[in-house]
Amino acid sequence: MSKINVGILGSTGRMGAHLIKNVVEDEALNLSVVHVYDELKTPIPKETLVTNDINKLLESADVVIDFSAPVATEALLEAALKNPKPLVIATTGFNKHQQNLLQKASEVMPVLYSTNMSVGIALLKQLVFEVSQKLKDFDIEIVEMHHRHKVDAPSGTALTLGEFAAKARGLDLEKVRVSGRDGQIGPRSKDEIAIMALRGGDIVGRHTVGFYNDGEYIELSHTATSRETFSKGAIRGAKWLIHQKPGLYTINDAIGI
Questions:
Q1: Which CATH number among 3.40.50.1820, 1.10.3720.10, 3.40.50.720, 3.30.360.10 corresponds to the domain 119-224?
Q2: Active site residue 18
Q3: How far apart are CA 205 and CA 28, in angstroms?
Q4: What is the mean predicted confidence (pLDDT) over 90-97?
Q5: Catalytic position from the list 35, 85, 125, 146
Q6: Which among 21, 56, 150, 167 is annotated as catalytic?
Q7: Is residue 101's pLDDT more than 90?
Q8: C-alpha dihedral, 111 to 115 to 121 to 126, nearest 10°
């Protein structure tokens, strides 16, 4: 059985290093190409193509895994519309245009997009939906913690969790979301969902969704202790995605949750 040729966009970042390692270790995969914007410090097999050309990345891969930045993902999506390939996208912080590109690409190729590739977060999203739906009188507060280098806030994962909580109650997250409180702001409104971001040290990622009522509360938490949680999840998604028809999928689809 031939190996799956994997291309990586975002190969010089923290996640890129883990992806390279995990792809090389997987006997079912071949690291065929890495896209490099700056210096690649992680060792790669001598036969792996190193390029800064998005088109060559697509031409040399059966599936592309993207842990980069919104501007890089935008370039990938635009190129993929001309040369469709299965895409696993874990980049966060997209603007409306980039979100629209993602949707457009999924109409002609299979695209797996998740703001968090961990299996634990995939299950947490479902739990948040169920609890939010059943405990409608409970206030919802979400707190996320990440390392000092993270550039977007709140995290894409926290926003996704907020979307699941809001959807369960028939709410539009953008209309009820609060991402900061300061001064004489008055009492908390019934429907608001707070999403607060903390940054510091080398925290890989922690998300807590709390449901608070008079006399009791429930908190659902997920903590990532290694970035390999995300790279291995993305690889699992890539193996599944290459057998799918065009469409927009999530990690939940790939693991059957």
A1: 3.30.360.10
A2: no
A3: 29
A4: 92
A5: 146
A6: 150
A7: yes
A8: -70
